[in-house]
Design a protein that fits this description.
8 helices, eight-stranded mixed beta sheet, mainly beta
């Protein structure tokens, strides 16, 4: 037990107080285990030698060919041993299928490194795996002094050497470069053919010959003329006319032909000329006539002309001795040989070492080619493509410089980019320095005929696009600071090795923060969020990967910030990176495109010397990897941990291999992080290495790396205090311990970060806590500094800081919003910045230090807009509820709040003098406030002014610089209105839709901005990506610009723009970029473009002093303005007329063009201003509430199209609305869906779970519920109009498709496409007229197939790019299942009535057709209907039948060759992975089958027997299996049944754990417990369940078999102590049961009624129970004795629907009693009674009867009669029920009369009143609007002199005594079933419906 005098460090400014932890605080449990025996090992593993990390027999050696297959990694051979856990990548593992040799995959590249001798490896001299034809002989060459192969003959095609010998085989060579050492025979022709396979298995032939006269290309063949010249080109020969003829360049080899090293870059050849990705080299054919010495492949670019002594001073790789040509001493390599590199590089090294060589007698030239396809990668220099490929040709006069090793991509560290559409060279890119130069190869070409000569020129500067004159400095902005942390995750934060700085990502930017000074520097270049970081031990190299697939990685020079290398990772998404201490090895972990875990090792040792990153090894593993580290003491050893596994890795012989640690009883833990123990002196022997790992269950394991066993196991346990809260939700991946997310080890201590928000420091023996610091959120990452004195910690809430262990003080480094920033505002005097974000926070920052000063959080409503008061320390914030509040930065309170808006606030701005404030909302209203004093008030509220439904934007409202004008978009999207800011009189209205007659669509305005007052300009950005400059007085168009877009990029509207005070620079937010325009120049050279944001920029602004620029999106960026400020700025005046420019580009003068447009008269200011309505003025009687006196007679705009505007009624409210209860907005809501308990068991495949990502989703009614299995938090994706029937998750796990059945409101079934990361519906498609039965994505996620049910019989295909319908087929018979072939995206299989249908997709242009092949089920199987299917190992297909059989099909042969009896019921589900098959049946049996031998049985055909298939495990669940998801190893999964239960299944333990279980049938009632900590529900399944409201977890369940529980009551809090709480439940047999909640037992059962109970209630003292039955009898009983002492029969003949009891002295009613209670019956009668049960008194107070409705209105069945006492006024009674009118009747018991009637849209089905607020909730049977009613009509009534306004809002009504408003049913609650029981608590509204689910809605 770890206890002691632990101390806690105080965290200043973060709410972390310094205190001493108590003895009952978090502790490490005594779970130390004795280490396992040294000789122990895991089953199936190999015995390990002492200290070995790998099996002793594992030796990496070069593979050899065996038969037609290629033996290599993953194929066992004698003397080798491979671990099955670390499998080779499918991309490199050799295929062994002889039927399709072209589909074979290449050999692993590790053993081919650094180069491969092709002739030696394939033993050409034996001619077994190679072939020769014609005159091929071995001769001795005098120059090389060795044996070479001579190939000669008059016909090249008949004399050759072929590798490999058979066309059915493949070389499988993956080296990027092919080196051909050959010499053409003089006077002869020669041909070299290469068959190259691309990554998509397309074979391309590449040929080189001096037979070819010109370059030719097809889709599968490239022909390059390899021309041998007879003279040496001189420097002056820049044209083809300098003595060279066409015949000189083409023809026979020269007589003095020399040995040539032909170096071919196969990757670039395919990429440049065919835009394809190189896979591997398949075959080589060398044809006559030539001499060939050898062939080599390598990933390295060798330089043959530099010796070892020379290359030591140069960043090049010399040719290996085995490959090199011999050079006699004193001679030059170029005097004897020729080096041809194709294509040539653009990066060169100094040529001084080569210039001394003599001129060769001949040169080599490649003929012309087409213009290559541009490389789709950003370049640091202008890329000019010549019209032919380039070959390096040395010359004595030309500076023939030896090239560096080419890199896959050209990279640059970007902070901004300049672009100009008029530049023919395409967009250019700028580096950080304005005058940066790069060393490039500028290719000058001179063409003559069909051939091109090329020469390399000297160093050239970066080309600037456009003219730079008039737009200086360049760049004008420089990034100064970033506010933010994280983005993709908050686990990436590192110390530099010297401990002086911290490196962390902020979305797409990498920040280096000096902890002492707060200075930041940045690494810019990523275009998406950075997902992983790694820094080497010497601070030389920094590696980073970005999140979006395919993952792009960068290597940086950490000291200079320069990007050294950019390359694409084979891992689809990299989640972890780790450097070796020297930086020569980089390891990465992530998922490939199939979702499998992949580990890759890169060699990075040559990057700093100009080399490239080399993939040393890569391996797939079926084990989860959460953390991966390279050891600091041995660069070849690594360790990983994840779900249920800790593995030790080693890189040896070009292969990554791993072996597991014997975890013993801890093999089921979910490990999260690991760290190696460091020695005090920094040195540690590998045999003594100790590894620490942590888990989500609180375990910390200490592992002996030598014995690979657990030495000690400790556990961090939570403190359980008496009477404390219930523990959090326990799932299969969490336990009672505190989840540990990260740990870090120093030589003296261990730092642990946990999800309870604590950072704890322990000694390595974990005897006591040294220090602990509490954070505001879960700690996601910890890292101890190299000196061990500081501990860096990061939280999931976006906080980054460190704990100083000496001073015990916590220092905050960075805080961050956890969601995108929506708006910002700046205050000049204090230098403060305010931001609002989607994370529902408002934060105040110090611009000088970028530190957070204040934060304001709103859990109920989201902030939308913010602005500072210009003169006072106050800021204003607008919220989604429509409220506008002022916050004082001095008093830290909310002094004033106004709620005059009904919709979310979209704009907020103040005049420069601070007198007026303006706000707009999404309902179109505009409010004006007076801010002359701190108690600001509303001056005017005008409806239908602003464009409704406009998104919130910082530029939605604009006030002129002098404060006289107000501009906004409205009243429609196509118009911009300018009003007088004081009176709101309309001065100008401009129709943006008429500005461009050439456009086929009407334009809409997005944002507005005023220029300086002297200019009088109004700038408007539009949806068509234009910026229009208008005269703010006349509306005349002054200038117009199209915001520049890169080709192929969809234009994004500009949500924010601003103009500097001196009108010099225009700042625009354009997508993820910031664009700066020179506003002063008419002929602007185009914008400067700045990158860095990974999400769209929402707001841009100049600082008040104009020296800085702020941009907000994913984070807040602070930029310095490098331009000097001119003191006397003369503003440019637009000319009266100017010729408009053409095309896109600068801001144009458009006066001449504007004269041709329809013009408007400049309106005169109106003499009559808008009426001073005040905040809540009532509209005039009989009118629509709108008065318009705004220049009604003045002409307005001339529009191209007429519009019919809809003007909603102006909503008014009482002046008292600011007091008491707040007015909710019409578009917002009082209610939000908090939790759903239940699962739709009547769906099919309606649950998905991805173990690798943790994504878990299922359906419940019309909702898609996404739940975090660790925390229990839910997201509710709503929108379906009917119950969701099925789900499908894309293979990339980025898209979820959901389909529903038909509803009464839609003609077709809805299919919704959801973005998994954001939870937003991206597409809504529909085609099926009946319920969608199944969904499936194709393996490449390019297609989605949807299957209709047995009535519809429709099969539809959708393209996932735009989700357009591609194909639709009417099926001849019902189909039960559909699936894509996982190995062929073009094959689709359906199963139905006795047939299997294979459908092949055939595409002709844009059309896709289905070729159908039907195969009947053999009669011998006798299967009946096929009900399910899944693909197995290729080419197998498993099908389940309705009779319980599983049959196996050979998809190639189209026959069924095996079947076996798998179950007693129909097989509704099949799932295959590895060699295991899961089957689920209609009788609830879940079985696991071993089917590994089925593939071998395929060859036996019909003679196959099922004896080789055996069942491994079996489980019986509570209903038919309808959905299942398992991990790749099928060890664990989640299974759904028709009982509405989701089970977690673990085959290893043989257990099934209930994850989610709602009621199996209709929920009848829900009641609250005292204090509202719990609620109870009852259902027709006979169960009573008690739920914890905080977590919605099931706490207690009481089950009565074969009975329905119809009513429920919870004893009141005054009945005694909490442990005496009881539940009274009434059942269908007339019994009443009393349950003790504390003892979880039934106390009493009694039979007070002969028929079913329908209502039950406790008396106010809890000593009496009142119950009513369906015959109308009310019984009064003692819950302790079970005796019934009174029966009331006044309501006999009609069922009792409600019994309500309240505590009230009844003297004012004329009777005696302590309780007042009522009973309502189905005959519309309510009786009110006064009782004193201790004295056995019960007197009738009142009897109410209500008229009976017509049967036609109730459609034959009556809704219930419901009544309740008013909690806030005991004299009032509220009644709803069937009557002549649909209404709520309010009856006063004292006055004996009805005082109010409130109309309802439907008859009520449930009723509840809030005891803590003036709220009434009503539930209806149907939540749809009446036919023909587009919007609910408002109703106004008076009650006791107070105004009541009522408005129906999709079925839920909320009322207040002074202010009665509508709460909102969210779309998550639009259900067709009736709301059966609704109860209102003080803090929450809990609703249960008939869908077998309990729904928790929080107010």
């Amino acid at each position: 037990m770890a206890r002691g005098s632990a101390r806690r460090a105080g965290v200043p400014g973060s709410g972390i107080q310094g205190r001493r932890p108590e003895r009952s605080g978090p502790r490490l449990g005594p779970e130390a285990r004795a280490p396992a025996q040294a000789g122990s090992r895991l089953p199936g593993s190999h015995p390990r030698a002492s200290g070995a990390w790998l099996p002793s027999g594992a030796r990496a050696r070069p593979a050899s060919l065996a038969g037609v297959g290629v033996a290599g990694e993953g194929v066992e051979s004698p003397g080798s041993c491979l671990l099955p856990e670390a499998r080779p990548s499918p991309a490199v593992a050799p295929a062994r299928v002889a039927e399709s040799p072209d589909a074979r995959r290449p050999l692993p590249t590790a053993w081919q490194h650094p180069f491969l001798n092709v002739f030696r490896h394939f033993r050409v001299d034996e001619w077994k795996r190679s072939a020769k034809q014609g005159d091929v002989a071995v001769v001795t060459d005098k120059t090389l002094k060795g044996a070479v192969y001579r190939i000669r003959g008059s016909v090249s095609a008949a004399n050759y050497i072929q590798l490999p010998g058979s066309s059915t085989q493949s070389l499988g060579l993956t080296g990027r470069y092919l080196y051909v050492l050959f010499r053409p025979l003089p006077g002869k022709h020669f041909v070299i053919h290469l068959d190259v396979s691309t990554k998509d298995n397309q074979v391309i032939r590449v040929s080189f010959s001096n037979l070819f006269k010109e370059f030719k290309s097809t889709a599968t063949w490239l022909q390059f003329p390899l021309v041998l010249e007879t003279r040496t080109p001189q420097r002056g020969d820049t044209k083809m006319g300098c003595g060279w003829s066409r015949t000189d360049l083409v023809g026979l080899a020269p007589s003095r032909a020399r040995w040539t090293c032909l170096q071919l870059d196969l990757q670039d050849i395919l990429l440049v000329y065919l835009n394809r990705c190189y896979g591997h080299l398949k075959s080589i054919r060398l044809c006559a006539s030539l001499l060939v010495r050898n062939l080599y492949t390598s990933d390295l670019c060798f330089e043959p002309a530099i010796s070892g002594a020379q290359w030591a001073k140069l960043p090049v790789t010399p040719m290996p001795r085995e490959m090199a040509f011999p050079v006699p001493k004193g001679e030059s390599w170029h005097d004897r040989y020729i080096h041809v590199r194709f294509p040539s590089d653009s990066l060169k090294v100094p040529s001084k070492l080569i210039e001394k060589s003599c001129s060769p007698p001949e040169a080599v030239l490649l003929g012309p080619g087409p213009q290559p396809l541009p490389c789709p990668v950003a370049s640091s220099k202008p890329v000019r493509f010549s019209v032919s490929p380039v070959v390096q040709t040395p010359s004595p006069t030309a500076s023939g410089r030896a090239p560096l090793a080419p890199r896959p991509f050209l990279e640059v560290s970007l902070s901004q980019e300049r672009s100009d559409a008029s530049n023919v060279d395409g967009p250019g890119f700028h580096s950080l320095e304005p005058w940066a130069h790069v060393e490039a190869s500028d290719v000058h070409t001179a063409a003559a005929g069909t051939h091109v000569l090329t020469h390399e020129s000297a160093e050239v500067p970066v080309v600037r696009t456009g003219s730079c004159e008039g737009f200086l400095p360049d760049p004008v902005l420089r990034l100064k600071g970033v506010i933010g942390f994280g983005g993709h995750s908050t686990r990436q934060a590192l110390w530099t090795p010297d401990g002086a700085a911290v490196v962390y990502p902020c979305h797409a930017v990498i920040v280096v923060l000096l902890v002492d000074t707060g200075e930041q520097r940045f690494f810019l270049g990523h275009t998406d969020k950075v997902s992983a970081l790694a820094l080497d031990g010497s601070s030389s190299l920094l590696a980073s990967a970005q999140a979006r697939a395919p993952s792009v990685m960068r290597l940086w020079d950490f000291q200079t910030g320069q990007c050294l290398c950019l390359f694409r990772s084979p891992v689809h998404v990299v989640c972890s990176l780790s450097f070796s201490d020297s930086g020569a090895l980089l390891c990465g972990v992530g998922k490939d495109h199939h979702g499998r875990t992949m580990v890759v090792a890169w060699g990075t040792g040559q990057v700093g010397l100009g080399g490239e990153v080399v993939v040393l090894a890569k391996a797939h593993t079926d084990f989860d990897v959460q953390a991966f580290r390279v050891t600091f003491f041995d660069e070849t050893r690594m360790a990983s941990c994840g779900q249920g596994s800790v593995r030790l890795w080693r890189l040896r012989g070009g292969a990554l291999r791993s072996c597991p640690v014997d975890l013993g009883e801890h093999h089921t833990l979910q490990f999260t992080d690991l760290a190696f123990k460091q020695a005090q002196d920094g040195r540690l022997e590998p045999l003594a290495a100790m590894l620490f790992v942590c888990s989500r269950s609180g375990h910390i394991l200490e592992i002996d790396c030598q014995r690979m066993v657990v030495r000690h196991a400790r556990r961090l346990l939570p403190t359980r205090t008496p009477g404390g809260r219930h523990p959090q939700k326990q799932t299969f991946s969490s336990g009672p311990g505190i989840a540990i997310s990260s740990l870090s080890i120093s030589p003296a201590m261990c730092a642990v970060g946990s999800e309870d928000g604590f950072l704890r420091l322990w000694p390595l023996d974990f005897s006591s806590v040294l220090l602990e610091a509490e954070h505001e959120g879960p700690v996601s990452s910890v890292c101890v500094s190299p000196d061990g004195l500081r501990v860096l910690s990061a939280t999931s809430s976006g906080h980054l800081g460190f704990l100083d262990t000496l001073s015990r003080v916590y220092h905050m480094l960075a805080r961050s919003h956890t969601a995108p920033v929506l708006a910002l505002a700046m205050e000049q005097r204090r230098g403060q910045l305010a931001t609002v974000s989607q994370d529902r926070t408002v934060r105040i920052w110090d611009l000088a230090t970028l530190q957070q000063l204040y934060d304001f959080t709103s859990s109920e409503e989201a902030p939308c807009a913010v602005t500072f008061h210009p003169t006072r320390p106050t800021f204003f914030c607008g919220f989604s509820s429509g409220a506008v509040r002022s916050f004082s930065l001095e008093a830290a309170e909310v002094p004033v709040e106004h709620t005059c808006h009904r919709g979310a606030i979209t704009g907020l701005t103040a005049t420069p003098d601070g007198r007026l404030l303006f706000s707009s909302c999404s309902e179109g209203s505009l409010a004006q406030y007076s801010c002359a004093d701190p108690h600001w008030h509303v001056l005017r509220v005008a409806a239908d002014m602003v464009c409704p439904d406009a998104p919130a934007s910082p530029s939605a409202l604009a006030v002129s610089r002098d404060g006289h004008l107000l501009a906004f978009v409205g009243p429609s999207r196509c118009t911009v209105t300018v009003t007088d800011s004081a009176s709101l009189d309309e001065l100008l209205r401009v129709d943006i839709g008429t500005l461009d007659l050439a456009s086929s669509r009407l334009d809409s305005a997005m944002a507005v901005c005023f220029g300086p007052a002297a200019l009088g300009h109004l700038l408007v950005s539009t949806s068509s990506n234009r910026v229009v400059v208008l005269d703010a007085v006349s509306g005349r168009i002054i200038r117009e610009s199209t915001v520049f877009q890169l080709p192929g990029v969809h234009p994004e509207p500009c949500p924010s723009l601003t103009l500097s005070e001196d009108a010099r620079f225009l700042l625009i937010a354009a997508g993820r970029t910031i664009k700066v325009w020179d506003y002063t120049t008419q002929a602007s050279p185009g914008p400067q473009v700045y990158i860095g944001h990974s999400e769209p920029v929402q707001a841009v602004a100049f600082s008040p002093d104009q020296q800085q620029v702020l941009s907000a999106g994913d984070a807040v960026f602070l930029w310095d303005v490098l331009a000097t400020t001119e003191s006397n700025q003369s503003f440019p005046v637009a000319p009266q007329a100017c010729e408009a420019g053409s095309g896109i580009g600068p801001l144009e003068d458009a006066s001449s063009r504007a004269s041709e447009l329809p013009q408007q008269q400049v309106p005169k200011p109106s003499q009559a201003s808008l009426p001073r309505l005040g905040i809540c003025a009532r509209p005039p009687e009989g009118g629509d509430g709108v008065r318009d006196t705004r220049n009604s007679g003045a002409p307005r705009t001339t529009c191209l199209a007429s519009y019919k505007a809809f003007t909603p009624a102006r909503v008014s409210c009482s002046p008292h609305s600011a007091k008491g209860t707040c007015l909710p907005p019409a578009s917002g809501g009082w209610l939000r869906l908090k939790a759903v308990v239940g699962y739709s068991g009547n769906g099919r495949a309606n649950m998905v779970w991805r173990p690798d990502t943790g994504f878990f989703a299922y359906t419940c009614g019309r909702l898609v519920v996404v739940e975090d299995l660790h925390s229990g938090a839910q997201q509710h994706w709503s929108g379906h109009s009917a119950e969701v029937s099925t789900l499908a998750l894309s293979h990339s796990a980025q898209v979820l498709a959901s389909a529903s059945g038909c509803s009464s409101t839609t003609a077709h079934c809805q299919i919704r496409i959801w973005d998994v990361s954001g939870g937003l519906c991206q597409h809504l498609i529909s085609h099926h007229s009946t319920t969608v039965l199944a969904l499936a994505f194709s393996p490449d996620d390019r297609l989605l197939v949807t299957l209709g049910d047995h009535d519809g019989r429709t099969l539809a295909l959708w393209g996932t790019t735009t989700y357009d319908l591609v194909s639709s087929t009417r099926l001849p018979e019902p189909v039960h299942g559909v699936a894509f072939n996982p190995w062929d995206a073009g094959e689709l299989t359906c199963v139905g009535q006795g047939t299997v249908t294979f459908r092949l997709l055939q595409q002709r242009g844009a059309d896709i057709s289905l070729q159908v092949r039907r195969e009947p089920v053999p009669e011998a199987v006798g299967a009946g209907e096929l009900t399910s299917l899944c693909y197995g190992a290729p080419p197998l297909l498993y099908c389940g039948t309705s009779s319980g059989q599983v049959c196996v099909w050979d998809t190639r042969a189209g026959r069924c060759f095996l079947s076996w009896e798998a179950d007693d019921g129909g097989i509704g589900l099949l799932l295959f992975s590895g060699s295991r098959l899961v089957s689920g049946s209609s009788v609830g049996q879940l079985r696991l089958w071993a089917v590994g031998a089925v593939s071998e049985l395929r060859c036996k055909g019909s003679g196959a027997r099922s004896s080789s298939v055996f069942m491994e495990h079996e489980l019986v669940l509570d209903g038919a299996v309808v959905s299942a998801s398992f991990d790749d190893s099928v060890d664990m999964g989640v299974v759904g049944t028709t009982a509405g239960t989701l089970w977690f299944v673990s085959w290893a333990e043989g257990t099934s754990t209930r994850l989610i279980s709602g009621h199996r049938s209709k929920v009848n009632e829900v009641v609250f417990g005292p204090g509202e900590a719990h609620c109870a529900t009852c259902s027709e399944d006979g169960s009573v369940r008690v739920w914890a409201l905080a977590s919605m977890e099931l706490v207690i369940q009481f089950q009565v078999l074969n009975q329905s529980c119809l009513c429920l009551a919870w004893s009141p809090p005054c009945c005694g102590r909490p442990e005496q709480q009881r539940l009274a439940a009434g059942y269908g047999d007339g019994s009443l049961r009393i349950f003790s909640v504390s003892r979880t037992a039934m106390e009493l059962k009694m039979h007070p009624h002969p028929v079913a109970l329908t209502a039950v209630a406790f008396s106010t003292d809890g000593q009496t129970v009142l119950s009513g039955d369906k015959d109308g009898l009310v019984a009064v009983s003692h819950p302790r004795t079970g005796t019934t002492f009174r029966v009331l029969s006044d309501h006999q003949g009609a069922p009792i629907s409600t019994i309500c009891v309240t505590c009230k002295e009844c003297e004012d009613l004329g009777v005696e009693g302590t309780d007042l209670w009522l009973a309502a019956s189905g005959d519309q009668r309510v009786s009110v009674w006064a009782s004193d049960w201790l004295r056995n008194r019960c007197d009738l107070v009142d009897w109410l009867s209500f008229p009976m409705p017509a049967t036609t209105e109730t459609q034959g069945h009556l809704p219930p009669s419901l009544a309740a006492f008013c909690p806030w006024d005991g004299a009032l009674l509220m009644y709803v029920g069937p009557g002549v009118y649909k209404e709520v009747i309010i009856y006063n018991l004292c006055q004996k009369q009805v005082v109010e009637k409130i109309p309802l849209p439907f008859f009520a089905m449930s009723l509840s009143l809030s005891p803590g607020s003036y709220l009434l909730a009503v539930g209806f049977a149907g939540l749809h609007r009446p036919p023909g009613c587009s919007s609910p009509p408002p109703a106004t009534r008076s009650w006791c002199g107070r105004s009541l306004a009522a408005e129906m809002q999709q079925g839920l009504w909320c009322w207040a005594s002074r202010l009665v408003t509508s709460g909102t049913w969210t779309q998550a609650w639009q259900r067709s079933q009736a709301v059966n029981g609704l109860m209102l608590g003080q803090a929450r509204i809990h609703v249960n419906c008939l869908e077998q689910a309990v729904v928790n809605l929080a107010t």
